[in-house]
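Narrative summary of target 7.
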Amino acid sequence: MRCTIVLEFDEGDGTVAKRVEVMRFHRVDRSQASGDVGLSLAEGNSLLNCVQQEFVVEQLDRYCVSQRACKVCGALHRVHDGHCSELKTTLGKVFYCLDRWKACKCGADGSRYVSPLKNYLQEPSTGELRWLHAELGATMPYRQAKQVMDLLLPTSGRDSHVTIRNHTMAVGKSLQHAQPVRRWCEEIKPIAELGIDVGYVRRARSNGKGAGKDNRAGAGRSSSSIDVVVAALGQTGRQPRVWASAIPRTKRLQEEMTKFLEDSGYDDPNDVCVVTDGDLDLAGVADDLPFDTEWVLDWAHIGRMLRHVDQAITPLAYGWLTANGSAFELWDLFVRLRSFVWTGQTVRWQKLGKELCRLLELRERLDLNSSREAKQARCKLIDLISYLNSHLESLIDYRTRQRVGLRIATGFVESSINRIVGRRMCKSQHMRWSRAGANSVVQVRVALLNQEFHELAQRQFPWIGQRRVSWPWQRPSRAF
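Modeled conformation, tokenized:
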């Protein structure tokens, strides 16, 4: 059996203007192996690349013919020279003739020579390929993305993971300042619940002159890490809209977060409830926002510290310490303290905290067998009380807030950090990043998480994702 693939180009009226034989497939019926049906992946890639080659050449030839005449006098430009050039597409690398014409004698061109494809093909690769590289490069390591491209799509064999990295960085920079494709809030806007947290990635080693300046500008844990600020905005029970940035915490970061809130539908008069773990670095991120900001301390962080105190007091729970106390006086006081913190009764938990510290100190002196455990429990309790006292303005009635359906923890932000930063940039990856590279990858992953990536790509290149065909692309060879 032999199958011949032929391309026919026409003007839309049914008359064939050009007919090109692209490829022939051969099958020997007697030597067919079991299951050898249809085209293989290698044959399909070769066919796609051949069709793309002929289609691009014909399309560029027709465009050059339409631009050949002078726009002023109508005279045809004379060909001066030309050379072979290449264009990278999603269906492989294609080659075309890049001509250069002599300028028209009327002087309308304003130069000696004219290149008709100079403004038509401004990049050596198509926009669809660059955005595909960015999507794969932000989803998986660059070398792995290169292997996936080679496995599924035609390739020239000369591409490398560096190309995917460069395209990812370029697309990430364009996404950082792109306008959102849609408004996220209706006319009646609830109070904005904004969660802020920070993720860290390892910084790439650099001996350049700008390395020390970049390290001083970043406010991360140390000079060997880059901090990525992540913010999530949305109501309980709905997918939040995410924003992230790896730039240093300067005024520019405040402006971008303000723009994120405005693009999400929240203007100056709206209230913003910021949920955070109380980190001093995070306090400076949202203090300068032009909104009426209400701070809420993350209950998950408080609950974790309460659990540590609980684990330390549990072995010491049994025993009389005062005449009016019960056999489980330490445990009873701690349960009441935890309840008062949960309901936002500051004066009462402060009083119980002092009493509990006094009893633990008394237990440390009286019971020599458990003095070490009592000291450890007292130290953990002091840490908890100091943490709560340093964030009194952020403590609220968590029970009431939870009952009305509002957020009391930053779990939705931490999950966003894991999806944006952790899975790609630090956890089990053993990778190091520059600040520019980390910020670009973060922007692409945020666009993918917000389900805006393909819409932003179509805004810049409207033909991406379109099927401009006349016949259905799923049509059986016969009626069944």
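Residues 447 and 453 are 5 Å apart (CA to CA).
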